[in-house]
Amino acid sequence: MVSTPNKTQPLAEFFWRVRAYIEDTDAGGIVYHGNYLNYMERARTESLRALGFDKTYVTGAEILLVVHSLAIDYKQPAVLDDELLVEAHVMGLKRTSITFRQNILRGTELLTEATVKIACINKNTMRPVAMPDELSAALRRWIDVGELAGVAM
Description:
By secondary structure, the protein is of the alpha+beta class.
């Protein structure tokens, strides 16, 4: 779903399904806190893949997309065998960064929410650089027309 942008609503959405396997959990069957970040990374990666930009594109373009900052709030635990929905909402796009709002849900229950800022850097200098034009244009199309809205795997 894409809506008119404002300060409180996401601009574009992407959905990715994942199941909590035993390797994701601690001895009590609760998903280990670090694995939520893995789930979010997969959703962001798959959203870019759905736009036509896989990891080989990024490495071929001499850029890296790296986590610049992250704020996360764990509300309820996921447990072994839960089917989870990982959301990636584009909240902002700047010349050298993308800001995502990411939620993880079990059914309609919100388990985790985070804000993740991704920076575009030159892989040789490790300094911020402008996103390649084709990537920026694809992200803007996603925001404007929601061409990824409602995608679920």
